[in-house]
Input
Amino acid sequence: MVGVETTCLTVLPLFHTAGLNVFANPAYHFGGTNIVMRDFEPGKCLELLGDADVGITHFMGVPTNYLFISQHPSFETATFPTVKSAALGGAPSPLPLLEAWGAKGLPLQQAFGMTETSPLATALKPEDAMVKIGSAGLPALHTEVRVVDEAGNDVAPGEIGEIWTRGPNVTPGYWEYHEANEESFVDGYLKTGDAARVDDEGYIYIVDRWKDMYISGGENVYPAEVETVLYQLDQVSEAAIIGVPDERWGEVGRAIIILKPDAELEEATVLAHCAEQLAKFKVPMSAVFVDEIPHNATGKVLKRELRISHGE
Output
């Protein structure tokens, strides 16, 4: 239960998302305090999170927020004396990022949801954050979640399928958008468009968005897996993988990378590192170094824009 001693921190871009309901609305209704940053600034976030007098108890962000905070010079010595829960959602998170926050004593609670699920479908308990690292947890209260194949059958543990979910939190449909309703709902289940797998204990692991997956030589490649490998390189500040056309393989991967200040990294080094960690068909064929990667208002990487600007 959220109590009167709860103080929630969010940044303005998240204020416009349904995801804010997870912490901010309960805090408001139960007499807690909400702190909304006008702009997201990693150093200021660290200052607020570490200030016992401010007393932040709950914080929520997307992977980009946590990534930039973890790369701030003050992160190494930062402490979080009053933070009880740090929630993470909006996109798959690289494993090195989860490990970095876990090493600081503040494991990130991953969750999965969307506007259509008001906003939660699954969530990871705090005590499972490191035991089930990388998982988005179990179905939320009163919510049913399935991972299914193309025929709508439940996949076996470890296999990849699409997340379907239904419950009182799920929208009954899109207003006056009959075509979308016919495509998006089956027996009351919302077809989320997200790829996932489930383990033997029912924990959900988000793999990636189906629309971001590309097919190389007949094999499905999920960019999030490759991005996790890229973040193992100390020189990498931010990275994204897109599929680009290829005459031989249909599509191949291209790494879009922002380097940390004063860092140096060669394309050949990037590709060699990926070749050591990944199956051959998952290894990018090229790497591009850029100054900026586009994000939407909530901090999610805009793969669509990357494919337009770097997809040829």
About this structure: Residues 57 and 82 are 5 Å apart (CA to CA). The two ends are 51 Å apart (CA to CA). The longest helix spans residues 267-277. The chain has nine helices and 17 strands.
